[in-house]
Structure formats: structure tokens, C-alpha cells
Amino acid sequence: MKKLFNSLPFRLLLGILVGIILGQIFNESTMGVVVTLQYIMGQLITFCVPLIIIGFIAPSITKLGKNASRLLAVAIVIAYVSSVCAAFMSMGAGYGLIPHLSIDNNVAGLRELPGVVFELNIPQIMSVMSALVLSVLVGLAATWTNSKLTCDFLAEFQNIVLDIVSKVIIPVLPFYIAATFCGLSYEGTITHQLPAFLQIIVIVMAGHYIWLAVLYLLAGAYSGKNPWEVLRHYGPAYLTAVGTMSSAATLGVALECARKSKVLRKDMVSFGIPLFANIHLCGSVLTEVFFCMTVSKILYGKLPSVGTMILFCLLLGIFAIGAPGVPGGTVMASLGLITGVLMFDNAGTALMLAIFALQDSFGTACNVTGDGALTLMLTGYAEKHGIADTGDLESPIL
């Protein structure tokens, strides 16, 4: 029970409930303090975005580059394609379904939030796109030149950034989200849009199952093997992922589930499952795209343009490869895209973080279960191209 109370979803849910209640009872002067605190916390989170991008993307590139091979390249490509195609499916569903949801764009009767009492501006050290380009170039160059010092520095920097996220950003999030929902409750927006929030969670979960069905059918068709012989063993891994919200924490169970399958090569399991746990985040990407489109409709009255969403989906696939397999890793790594490409303000970012975290366990479960399908594809590729079966638990690419 103590573990449940200390979990991030519980704290976020508590923050949402407290914020909604306080928003109904606070007066204008008190809301001025709340808005100011929300602004300061938003500035802190925004400042950390470029650091998170560099800390997640660049070290991931160097780690993958050390063991570069044909199988590794194939694994990265199919993980990226899976995430991007899931994002495009979610985007299509968003344009088709969101306009028909019960989203009330009429702002009549809503109260206006007071302005901030004072502004504490914390500028980013660089723009989001600059951080992304720098991460890719430095990561690739360090790999090409075999620069051990740079690779070690990036690995250390990643640990530093992960500590910043876990010890600064994550503890601040419940308060930031509570302040945001307090403002939405004060305005009256949250009571107008509650049915829409419930609908999008159900739609996204249905999208997870549809995408998993697509992945396993494609994997079975390509490999010529029965995909059910993989999927039927994944129940424990799915439930573990729901409970932990972490692909990394589920890795041990996922490996055991995959090893029970008679159609997966053991060397592909030892190589593919740990790798995909870190670079294949199809469920999280699918969720984030649909939620971003819904939040845009709720807060800004319109969906992002098709061109903007295509760019967002393509870049999100890259960010997903570099995101850590920890709770909220995908949305944390892609905060720069949410603010830089979709142009979300503090309220949009906080709302996105809140609703994403509340269902993140099911997105993680989709990620983990989808890894089995991609490992089946790797098995088919290895057999079609005559790659020898090592028959043990060592990585076949070393």
C-alpha cells in the first residue's frame, strides 16, 4: 500500500484532485499566487528540456554505435518504423475522431485567470531543435572517431540528467499539475471537458490493441511462423509492465516470456528484447500523438495542421529511440517537441504530462508486448539471410 501511495500516478492523480477542489474555492488573489508558482515551475521544467534531449539522445547513439552491425541496423529501423507508423495511425484516428468528441469550445461563462504576481524568467541554454541536432551530431561523431572520453562523458551526463529528472522534475510535477488543474478548475474548463478526457483514454487503449494485432500479423507473415506462439506467453510481461510503468523494470519478465516461445531464436531473444526495451516505444508514441491532438483541441480550440503533425510524428520516433525505459520517459524526452513543434504553453504541457502519466502503464505494456513481434521479425530476418544461430544467451552481434 505504501508503494502505491508513493507511485507517480497516485501522486499525479492526487495533485489533479486537489487542484480541481482548490480551484473551486480559491479567490482571485489566491489564484494569483497559484498562477505565479505554476509559471515558475513551468520555467524550471522548460529550462531542463534541452538538457534532457542531450542527456537522452546523444549517449543512446554512442551506446548503439559501439555494437554497430547489420542486425543492429535492422533492429533500429523496424523499431523506428513501428513507432512512426503507430504515430501516423494515431494521427489519422485523431483527425477522424476528435472533432466528434464532446469537446465544448464555447468559452462563454469561463472566468479569466489573474496574471502572475512576478515573473522569474529562466531561459533555456539553447533551443529545442539545436539540442536535437547537437545530440545527433555529437553522438555520431563520437562513435565514428571511437572517442572513448566523449562517450564516457556522455554516459556520465546521462546519469546526471536522469538524476535531475528523478530528483527535481518528477517531485515538482505533482505540484505543477495541481496548480494547472487548479487554474483549469477556477476557469471552469475542466468541468466542461471531463467527458472528453474519459473518451480519449478508452480510444487510446483500443488503439494499443489494434497496433499490437498489426505488429504480430506482420511479424507472422514475414517470418512464416505462428505469431500466437509468441503472444500467448506475454501475459506476465504485460501485467508487470502495467504495474511498473517501466520497460526497464519489466525486462527480466519479458525475457522469460520470450524464451518460452518455440518460434523465437534464443540468440535473437537475448539480443532483441533488451534492445527493444529501450528503443521501441510504439504504445507510448501512439498515446502521446492522440493526447497532444486532444489537448490542442481542448485548450486552443483547434487541431494542429497536418504538416505540423507529420513533422511531430517523424521527430517523435527519433526521440522515442533515445528515451529511457522508465515511467514517463517518452513524454519527458519529447517535451521539446511538444513546446517547440506543437507550440504548447505551460498549461498545455502540464495537461499533457498529467493525462499521459495517468495511463502510462498501458502504453508501457503495449511497448513491451510489441517487442515480441519485433523479435519475431528479427528471427525471420536472421533465418532468411543465413545468419548463424549462436544457440546461447550471448548477443549475436558481438
UniProtKB/TrEMBL annotation:
Q: Which InterPro entries match?
A: Na-dicarboxylate_symporter, Na:dicarbo_symporter_sf
Q: Provide the alphabetized UniProt keywords.
A: Membrane, Transmembrane, Transmembrane helix, Transport
- Location(s) in or outside the cell: Membrane
Topology class, membrane: Multi-pass membrane protein
Q: What is its main location?
A: membrane
Q: Which GO terms describe its cellular component?
A: plasma membrane
Q: Which GO terms describe its molecular function?
A: symporter activity
Residue stretches spanning the membrane: 37-59, 71-98, 122-144, 164-186, 198-222, 275-294, 306-326, 332-358
Query: This protein's superkingdom?
Result: Bacteria
Q: What is this protein called?
A: Dicarboxylate/amino acid:cation symporter
